[in-house]
């Protein structure tokens, strides 16, 4: 089960990095990296209170995993809607609702990255016993910010074709939905 969760978290991270690559300027990617770093710094006191048994109990609870699968499916549905909206970019009748929905889908990076960051922070804290929690959190926040900015920019430049990135985002979301179902 831990392997499935690890693969799922990896796909969620890839999904987030691909999605922030659709921001028009580098400042969007910069804001996403800064937001992830600030999130890590905000939750580190909570993460220090968690234990391995609490996390294992959460992952073993069918009810909680079904709730998580619903959240995963909703997030992936929004991302798939973004993909279809990008494919339908040449629509004839543009309305106020369609423009605002497109804007919302474009700037929504995804909230499941917060679950990935929280889980990874707790695992990092467990990996460094005896080290000051604040130091681990600050180092993790720095690595997270630099990693999100670097990887997001790299994926945007390396996979420069929007249609290729859109296809990867779509396929990644299909895998996320399937792994979310398997995890329950």
Automatic annotation (TrEMBL):
Which residues span the membrane?
6-22, 29-48, 68-90, 111-129, 135-154, 166-183
User: In terms of domain of life, where is this protein from?
Assistant: Bacteria
Query: What is the name listed in the Swiss-Prot or TrEMBL entry for this protein?
Result: Uncharacterized protein
Query: Which UniProt keywords are present, listed alphabetically?
Result: Membrane, Transmembrane, Transmembrane helix
């Amino acid at each position: 089960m831990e392997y499935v969760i690890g693969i799922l978290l990896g796909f969620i991270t890839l999904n987030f990095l691909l999605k922030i690559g659709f921001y028009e300027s580098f400042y969007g990617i910069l804001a996403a990296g800064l937001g992830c770093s600030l999130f890590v710094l905000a939750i580190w006191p909570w993460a220090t209170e968690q234990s391995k048994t609490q996390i294992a109990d959460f992952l073993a609870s069918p009810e909680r995993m079904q709730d998580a699968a619903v959240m995963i499916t909703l997030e992936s549905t929004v991302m798939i809607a973004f993909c279809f909206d990008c494919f339908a970019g040449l629509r004839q009748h543009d309305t106020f609702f369609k423009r605002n929905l497109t804007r919302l889908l474009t700037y929504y990076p995804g909230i499941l990255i917060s679950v990935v960051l929280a889980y990874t922070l707790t695992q990092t804290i467990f990996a460094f016993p005896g080290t000051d929690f604040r130091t681990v959190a600050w180092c993790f926040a720095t690595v997270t910010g630099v990693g999100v900015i670097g990887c997001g920019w790299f994926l945007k430049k390396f996979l420069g074709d929007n249609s290729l990135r859109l296809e990867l985002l779509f396929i990644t979301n299909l895998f996320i939905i399937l792994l979310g179902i398997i995890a329950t």
